[in-house]
Amino acid sequence: MRKFITLFLITFFCVSNVNAQLSKAKDLYSKGKYEEALPLFKKEYKKNNKNKKNGSINHWIGVCLYELGREEESIEYFEFATTKRVIESPRYLAMIYSKNYKFDDAIRMYNEYQSIMEDNDKEIDDAVKEDIRYAKLAKSMLDHVEDIVVLDSITVDKDKFFEHYKLSPETGYIVPQSELPINIEQSTIGFKDQSSTRLLWSMPDENGKMRLCETVKLIDGNWDTPKFIDEQIESNGDLICPFLMQDGMTLYYSSNEENTLGGYDIYFTRKDEDSGEFLKGRNIGMPYNSESNDYMMVLDDVTGYGWWATERNNIEGKVTIYVFKRNEIRKNHRLDEINLPSLAQLSNYKLTWGDEDYQSVVDEIRNMDISTVEHRREVDFMFVIKKGLVYDSFIDFKSKDAAQEMKQLLSMYKERDLLKSKLSNSRIMYAKSNSKNDIVNDILQLEKELNKLNEIIFKTENWVRKEEQRLLN
């Protein structure tokens, strides 16, 4: 009898100790203290075969490993827990597979998760629905990953990342917010073409949505009134970071609309040759876009290099700039490419080099001193001196008198624009008014003033041309 009591007490205290240890592990787990909980769960796991077949213990170990950044180790525990229909295990597996661009496996696990949730009369939340949408979209993009050579990866401060783009003057210039011709509270940057006469950027409309806008430099050197240019692009998101190629027809930008991989994705569009309007934008896919923000795609026709910025490496206050070798015609990777996920997410950009060694090209780009690049000067005006010769700055003039008259011309151009605006408004009022007599007199007077001013402008322009040509000859 005494022996039985002794065995009972030993068994009781052992069971109590086990329950206490597991309870402590679960308490640490619930408080997010995964590093402390993990060894306790593993100790229980190793005690006997019964614990190894316990779905909950496998799941808890898996979560601890996952939260400690040991995702690869967690997979076997989540896989076993999934066979035991532990609710959250397939969701964790799906997130791991998505992160590693194994989207077929991720979708399969999300389907398993939905099935288990339905069996438990539960509905998946919006966050999981978004993860499922991402996995399906990313799977479709993984089938069309462009085959490019990424030459370099540069990590820089986010607030001035654009200063590290080394572009030829013929490509144009990225313009910081401080140099835009309009005050905008939202953070934004613009792009100016090679002639410095066309400027694009993004700014909020009356509803607060960031949209692409454009202005051109007038003949007097001032910027025209900005106008939105994205009506036909048909985006339901914010649009930022425009870049217009040298052809004047192809536009790249970034959008956070609904059908993105995450955050901002890079899109492109072209102008319709008949209407002159930009067509609906298209996502350029992988490897350019990721689950994080990707933006400011610039293609340099002169050097043959391309540049874009990404936040996919998740470094606080930093962005990564990728420099790549442009393709004249898009070519996608084969679907059976063994490194396709790595090539799509650029986990190691040098995998894109294949058997080639591009180090000398990388060194050339890194050693390029952007301060020595001869950028085009700012354009003050556009004035034809003779066929094949156009002045765009006062320093072009050989004659001081001609330069002085040019300043008078610019003032007259402004006055003419003002008269044209007044005349246009008067004509609109005339069309709407019942009492037209007074308005007719105003219109006649404005037309008289405009005609007189045009005569003076015509004579002054001719004098400037002849004076400058005299010295040139």
Question: What can you see in these coordinates?
Answer:
The chain is an alpha+beta fold. It has twelve helices and 15 strands. It has a five-stranded antiparallel beta sheet, with no helix packed on it. A four-stranded antiparallel beta sheet has the order 1-13-12-11. Strand 3 (190-192) and strand 4 (198-204) form a beta hairpin. Helix 1 runs antiparallel to helix 2, helix 5 runs antiparallel to helix 6 (89-99) and helix 6 packs antiparallel against helix 7.
Provide the descriptors you would attach to this structure in a database record.
alpha+beta, disordered N terminus, 4-stranded antiparallel β-sheet
What's the SSE blueprint?
Elements: H1 2-30, H2 34-47, H3 49-52, H4 55-67, H5 71-83, H6 89-99, H7 103-119, H8 126-142, E1 149-157, E2 173-175, E3 190-192, E4 198-204, E5 210-216, E6 227-228, E7 239-244, E8 250-255, E9 265-270, E10 282-283, E11 294-299, E12 305-310, E13 318-325, H9 340-345, H10 359-366, E14 383-386, E15 389-391, H11 400-432, H12 437-472
